[in-house]
Every structure is written in structure tokens, then in C-alpha cells.
Amino acid sequence: MCEQPISDVQHWNVALIGHSYIRRLQSHMDGFPADANLRLNRSLYTVTTCSRGGLKVCTLANDVSMTQFSTQQDIVFLQIGGNDLCDPRLKNSCHQITSFAQYLRHGVGVRRVIIGQLLRRQPWATDSDYNARVFRLNNLFSAWTKENQDLSIYFWHHRGFSDAALSYLDPRDGSHMDGFPADANQRLNRSLYTVTTCSRGGLKVCTLANDVSMTQFSTQQDIVFLQIGGNDLCDPRLKNSCHQITSFAQYLRHGVGVRRVIIGQLLRRQPWATDSDYNARVFRLNNLFSAWTKENQDLSIYFWHHRGFSDAALSYLDPRDGVHLFYSSTNQNIMRKYLRSVRSEVLHTSHDPRNICII
Question: Which domains does the chain show, CATH number per domain?
């Protein structure tokens, strides 16, 4: 394979591939714009991530979507192997990961591949031998890369993670790194509230009602906040839409066992982005929700009127599509306003610790 010399590279495309560590790193960069792109000069580096919680090297090697990059990558950083240590054959794990690194080099054409050091877990969060296997597998990676320096595959020892107390780990699970964006968990106290989300672009209530995966919660939910209905307004039968959504709310209450369900106010769209009657239908359907929940207060199903979205110019909408709330890495004010509105309703509705799902 003919490669451009490293010295001639003017712009580096960098991909970070791995398990939940990479996913959380991306979430951190999304929440803290100053840390975006790994704090690297964007005129010289473009950083992308590809991650999946619980990822193992066998899954990674068999999933072509994980290496189908939109642009040719110059560097790939692999944070992989922590979920493979249930296999005591450490040389086999080392062989699988270094073989995948060689595939990236010679099959995909990546110029340099970096294997990141595996990090330890709290002893109470895993089996007694896990951290010893981490140590031995890291040594195998280090030895292999030193023996094969001509392959441009390297082992990277993370700085700052030698703390004997493992204080960098999330105290709730002892496996993941601690640290969340300031707006994570709806800015609610994690010792009292656990917030999860379940979403799908273009979601309609008929799809939601027929997809059991959307209501298969890993833990019993105390509150569910429903932001649904905006994509159902192509149906002019507004009472029918109201009936479908309130019926789904009742199913959550009595079929799934959710203690309280909140139906969020529908927001308007720019007139140029939809049909001329859309915003009038939004107004009428919101009124139907409000009236229904007042008539059925004993069901613990509530309607929430979002705060701060009455602007006649609809300046909170993305000017590119006139439909979605505006959000960018440099301007998060609108999304934070929406966050505060949802958070206010959660606090208004709850008086004790809650598991909360936003759909």
C-alpha cells in the first residue's frame, strides 16, 4: 500500500474507538465545548468517536460499521479490552486486539494505531483477579508493540491513573470514570434522582405504543416525561391524537406501573417549515391535553406548560430547519432553557427520590 509520508500530512483525522469510556468522553466533550476535539487545533486535527457500551474486540472485529469512516483516518486510538478479561487466556485477547490493530493499519489504511492502556476497576465491582489480569494484559500489549515497532502500532500508558484508591472511578459502579457534563441528569442530585432518556427522531405515538423496547426500563420508573405529539399533527383529528397519547400515558401508569406521567407541551414550528395550520393545531392539542388532565386529576397524569417558549418570533428554533430547538457547541442557551423547564416539572411533581425517564 502506498502511503503519504507522515511528514507531508497537513491535517490529521483522528478516530477514537472503544467501549463506554469513549462514549463518556464524547459526552464530556459535548458538555464542555472547551474540551471538544480533545482540545486540539481544529485546523490541524479532526477528532471523531465511535463507541458502544460493553464493546468487546470480537464484536468490534465483526461490525464493519465501526470502521466505516466517512474520511480516511490517519490515527486510530483503541480503548478496548476491558470487557474481554472474562477470558483468562490473556495471550489470546492480546492477539485478537493486536490483530485488529494490524487490520486497521493494512486493511483500512490507517497510518498509526494506538492501543490505550486498560484501567483497573474497584475490587468490589469485579472478580478478585480482574486488576491482576489488567496488569498482565497491559504488559503483553507493551511487549508486543516494542517487538513490532515497524508496524506503526503503539501502546499508550495513560497519565494520572496510578492512584491506588482508584478515586477516578464512578463510586456508583466502580467500573466507569467519574465526571459528567454540568447539565447531566437534568442537573438533579444523583443521590435522589436517576434520569434516563429514550428517544427516536420522528417518533409518533403509534410507533411508540407498538414498540415495547421503548418502555422496557431496566429499573422501575417513578416518573415518565412524555414529549410526543409534534409528529402526529399531520392527522387533523386532534381528539384522536389526544386520545392516543393520553391512552399511552394511562398504559404507563397502570400497565407499566409508573407512578406519575407528565405530558409535555407541544412547541410551535416556523410557518415556512410546515403547513399553514400546524401551529394552530399545536395550540388546540395543547388545550385538549390541559383539559383532559384537569378532568382526570386522580390518574396522576399531568400536563406541563414549558417555560420560556412563548416568543412570537420563535427565536428558540434552529434557523436551518425551523423545527428543532437550536443547539450548537458554542450556544447551548436554548437547550438549557428546555432542560430547566423539564427539570422544574420533575421537581414540581416529585417530593421524594425518583427514577425518571424522558421519552
Answer: 6-156 (3.40.50.1110), 184-358 (3.40.50.1110)
